[in-house]
Amino acid sequence: MKTDIEIAREIELKKIKNxxxxxxxxxxxxxxxxxxxxxxxxxxxxxxxxxxxxxxxVTAITxxxxxxxxxxxxxxxxxxLNKIGKKAIVALREPSLGPCFGMKGGAAGGGYSQVLPMxxxxxxxxxxxxxxxxAHNMITALLDNYIxxxxxxxxxxxxxxxxxxxxxxxxxxxxxxxxxxxxxxxxPAETGFDITPASEIMAILCLSSDIDDLKHRxxxxxxxxTNDDRPFTVNDLGVAGAIAVLLKxxxxxxxxxxxxxxxxxxxxxxFANIAHGCNSVVATKMALTFGEYVVTEAGFxxxxxxxxxxxxxCRKAGLQPKLxxxxxxxxxxxxxxxxxxxxxxxxxxxxxKNGLANLDKHVDNMQKFGQQVVVTFNRFAADIDEEVxxxxxxxxxxxxxxxxxxxxxxxxxxxxxxxxxxxxxIENNPSASLNYMYEDTDSVRDKIKKVTEGIxxxxxxxxxxxxxKKLRQIESLxxxxxxxxxxxxxxxxxxxxxxxGVAKNFELKVRDVVINNGAGMIVVIMGEIMRMPGLPKEPQxxxxxxxxxxxxxxx
Length: 555
Fold this sequence. Notes:
Elements: H1 4-10, H2 16-22, E1 31-32, E2 38-39, H3 47-52, E3 54-60, H4 70-83, E4 88-92, H5 97-101, E5 109-110, E6 113-116, H6 118-122, H7 128-149, E7 157-160, E8 164-166, E9 176-178, E10 189-191, E11 193-195, H8 200-207, H9 211-219, E12 222-226, E13 231-233, H10 234-237, H11 240-247, E14 254-258, E15 263-266, H12 281-290, E16 293-297, H13 302-317, E17 323-328, H14 330-336, H15 349-368, E18 373-378, H16 385-398, E19 401-405, H17 407-410, H18 416-428, H19 444-456, E20 460-463, H20 465-477, E21 484-487, E22 507-516, E23 521-526, E24 545-547, E25 550-552
Parallel strand pairs: 3-16, 3-17, 4-15, 4-16, 8-11, 17-18, 18-19, 20-22, 21-23
Antiparallel strand pairs: 1-2, 2-14, 5-6, 6-14, 7-12, 9-10, 12-13, 14-15, 22-23, 24-25
Helix pairs in contact: 4-18, 7-8, 7-11, 9-11, 14-15, 15-16
């Protein structure tokens, strides 16, 4: 089969104003970024239509390094819905530049289910990531200047919580010392860099409803503490408006198209373990304004991504998804069924049977949120009928819908069966109200307990001395009402990335708690979490080139 970029290059793209016009966006409102990308003004969002149309979440069982294909299935399902006569739009996150040149490669779907132009989307796109990087680092520069200017006064800070970001995988920048070279160059300090998707600015961008909300959230960012233990925020620097200026264009959703020329909104890109891992609220609402069916995804597996989608994004934005699709692959089920990684491409019925326990846990979890659930088997050429039938049999016994998809190889036609199942399930079953795992009024400890026990299956939670201190700070700041965002490995229900399947009788340790006061959430760190990835021995960058005017090596 052709590579993703070869397939993408063969698609004849429509002018983006024509794509917009086909879904009802006036041509005059389309802000072009070249011929095939555009930004759409927030004034077009219609909350009445948002509440009436159908929002579908695509999530997955616990991911493996082989990948499960959530993005490809999200796009393919949208194509399938359009094939059966529904007005469907997909809303996804933007890829991060660092992983594109590192281990992961691109994140614009795959095969014949991609969003285009994929090379632009995977690289600089409309500059949103650069705007977030600039805004974040502008705050850092202004903060460093404040510290320098107040160094001999009682107005100084005793604790700094804000670093810098860069959208490049660079392990050398994780821990650095800045301000060297004498007093004219600032004050020496230990600091470091996170990758741009880990910036609180990115989470703020994706949760903001408009420019005023964005400015308010930016102003509330906690930068550190004063000498008399008062929280020090961007508002105390007096620059919230200036930072909002840097982000005003980045706040607008990006409109592109799929391999079948249907509309797609690609906007925002927060990490799914450090942040909430969903595309922006405004992009989802824009899609719901112009599409009868909107497909979106949440990062990693359902335990991390879907839980945060419901408990953070839907809670804050008032969204009510009608249905959740859980993606499985034969390889991922085998890996969770105890099959060695180097054997997961070989037929193994026992591995499939054992791996169904992981799927079962995710189905149960999604139903706890009041969601209607369907399962889709993301099928590849090497998969055998017996393995597919085993998953279908499980779903029948479980009472959840099941459909095979071949969207990678067949595009929209490969998603028709799944699309019909999704529509039938939504139309023939009354939608239940979304349940949350916890209430706003619960204590932070109770929220952590409800997620770790109710979703992950942990037997207990313990806290380090540092985490205990942070919980007391949260209480003193009066922000215990914030939702929690648990940061841990995506490869297991536990904090052990090698505990495949369904971990049992395990303890989780809260190492640290980070207050994202602007984003309005509390990040609970469990296990070792990398906020700045490094590059592998053979980075994807070695495969990327420009040959005869064409980009090669993106996938």
